[in-house]
């Protein structure tokens, strides 16, 4: 399919133009080039998605279907770092896996804080709440109550907003 064409049509705007010529560039039938070298950050996220998918016992096909990503080829490209997924795509995949978006962009091997965060995925909600109170209590004992206080308004807004809608 060729998109190159030239059209001429009579136009008379205040007597200035007799003909309007529009030239479209010849792009031929070439497809948009695909990334062949993985983007480092996209690869890290893709690897994390693959690990979480396998941990959940999902195939690429199942996750693509259940998360409404729609294409196992697209999901495969994400996992190989050939696609930079949008925030919406990350949310869709996280919902399909039954986890939070923050779990997708957390890299436990990067440090203790990330590892601790990842370990909380295995805890029940009441246990997470108890652990949070324990950490906040420890911070208060050390005089570091600002960190716990600063999160309060955010938690309150999140509580009022309720769960995210699909």
Give structural notes:
The protein has 166 residues and is mostly helical. Among the domains are: 40-104, Orthogonal Bundle (434 Repressor (Amino-terminal Domain)), CATH 1.10.260.40; 106-145, no CATH class. 53% of the residues lie in helices and 6% in strands. The chain has 8 helices and 2 strands. It has helices at residues 40-55, 60-66, 72-79, 87-97, 101-104, 112-119, 125-141, 145-161, and strands at 6-10, 19-23. Strands 1-2 form a two-stranded antiparallel sheet. A hairpin with an 8-residue loop joins strand 1 and strand 2 (19-23). The longest helix has 17 residues, at 125-141. The two termini are 39 Å apart.
Largest beta sheet: strand ordering: 1-2
Sheet-strand content, in percent, reads: 5-15%
How many β-strand stretches?
2
Query: Strand count, sense and closure of the main sheet?
Result: 2 strands, antiparallel
What structural class should be given to the helix and strand makeup? mainly alpha
Residue share in helix: 40-55%
* N-end to C-end Cα span: 39 Å
Q: Write out the CATH superfamily name of the domain at 40-104.
A: lambda repressor-like DNA-binding domains
Q: So how many helices?
A: 8
State Rg.
25 Å
Determine the mean pLDDT. Answer: 79
């Amino acid at each position: 399919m060729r998109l190159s064409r030239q059209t001429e049509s009579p136009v008379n705007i205040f007597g200035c133009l007799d003909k309007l010529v529009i030239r479209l560039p010849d792009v031929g039938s070439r497809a948009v080039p695909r990334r062949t070298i993985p983007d480092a950050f996209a690869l890290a996220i893709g690897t994390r998605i693959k690990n979480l998918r396998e941990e959940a016992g999902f195939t690429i096909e199942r996750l693509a279907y259940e998360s409404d990503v729609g294409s196992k080829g697209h999901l495969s490209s994400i996992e190989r770092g050939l696609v930079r997924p949008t925030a919406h795509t990350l949310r869709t995949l996280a919902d399909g896996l039954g986890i939070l978006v923050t779990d997708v962009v957390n890299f436990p091997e990067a440090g203790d804080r990330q590892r601790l965060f990842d370990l909380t995925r295995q805890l029940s909600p009441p246990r997470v709440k108890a652990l949070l109170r324990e950490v906040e209590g420890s911070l208060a004992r050390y005089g570091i109550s600002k960190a716990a206080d600063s999160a309060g308004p955010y938690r309150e807004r999140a509580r009022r907003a309720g769960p995210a809608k699909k």
